[in-house]
Amino acid sequence: MEERIQKLIAGAGLCSRRKAEELICAGRVRLNGNTAHLGDCADLSEDVIEVDGVRLKAAPEKIYLMLHKPRGFVTTAQDEKGRRTVLDLVKDCPERVYPVGRLDLNSEGLLLLTNDGEAANCLMHPKCEIEKTYLVWVTDYSAGSEQKLRAPMLLDGYRLAPAKIKLLQQKDTTALLEMTIHEGRNRQIRRMCEQAGLRVTRLRRIREGSLLLGDLPSGSWRYLTEKEVSEIKRIKQKGGNTNDR
User: Fold this and answer.
1) Cβ proximity of 54 and 9 under 8 Å
2) Distance (Å, rounded) from C-alpha 73 to C-alpha 30?
3) C-beta contacts of 74-78 below 8 A and 24+ residues apart
4) 223-235 b/e with 16+ CB inside 10 Å = b?
5) Residue 178 CB: number of other CB atoms within 10 A?
6) pLDDT, tens only, 181-208
7) Surface-to-core class of residue 148, CB atoms within 10 Å of its CB (0-12 exposed, 13-18 middle, 19+ buried)
8) What is the DSSP string of 98-110?
9) For residue 154, what are the CA distances in angstroms to 14, 93, 102, 188?
10) Rounded CA gap, 113 and 105, in Å?
11) Residues annotated as catalytic (active site), given as ranges
12) Checking phi first, is residue 61 left (phi over 0); if not, alpha (psi -120 to 50) or beta?
């Protein structure tokens, strides 16, 4: 059955569908010996797709992992500065996977990794509005800081959706907050706290959608359960053609 080339590339686990579109636009993808274009369709059982001269293989078995990312690791496949990446922590995984979304160098907690490019695309797309919950340790806290975080905020000219805030602990000017958002702006939690006059000293993601970090040790990973994979597939089906053109 013919499908859009970017979908086939993502389905093969090479990269996300959006990245595949960028590769096509850059002329790095060939279809049956000719430069491919957005909108081209193919059938891997009959057609030859090459990315940077390497033939695309049939999609591998889909794998979904949860990693408890420690601080000090970057959420990329490679780092030009030679820093440790989250892929160093999943070297014993039998298939190549890549992270879904990001946690910055000094953040920790739940991070999904998969070779299912279509699912990754849906999970990251704003349309799906996947809630993410964080534990946030802050200093410079004062009574009413939570209200400042709930108030309308702009980041880079973008109006954020209201965040859900709970005060879990507080002593003098230090506090532990639980923050839930569904967007993924660059360093969003830290920048929101800065706007509210708070300084983040520690940040841990504990939930993404219905997936919970639980007691997974820092630096360890596990396969998602059948129930958790079913939820990923439900989101994937709901996202459907979010990035089709």
Assistant:
1) no
2) 35
3) 74/105, 75/99, 75/101, 75/102, 75/103, 75/104, 75/111
4) ebeeebbeebeeb
5) 15
6) 988 788 999 999 999 999 999 999 999 9
7) middle
8) EEES---TT-EEE
9) 35, 40, 21, 10
10) 17
11) 104
12) beta
Residue 23's H or E segment, with its range, is helix 17-25
One-letter amino acid of 15: C
Strands 108-114 and 199-208: parallel
Instruction: Write out pLDDT tens, residues 23-45.
Output: 999 999 999 999 999 999 999 88
Measured between alpha carbons, how far is 163 from 14 in angstroms, rounded to an integer? 34
Overall size of the chain counted in residues: 245
Nearest-angstrom CA–CA distance, 50 and 56:
6
Partner residues linked to 174 by β-bridges? 171
Single-letter amino acid, residue 227: K
- 183: which 2 tokens? 């967007």
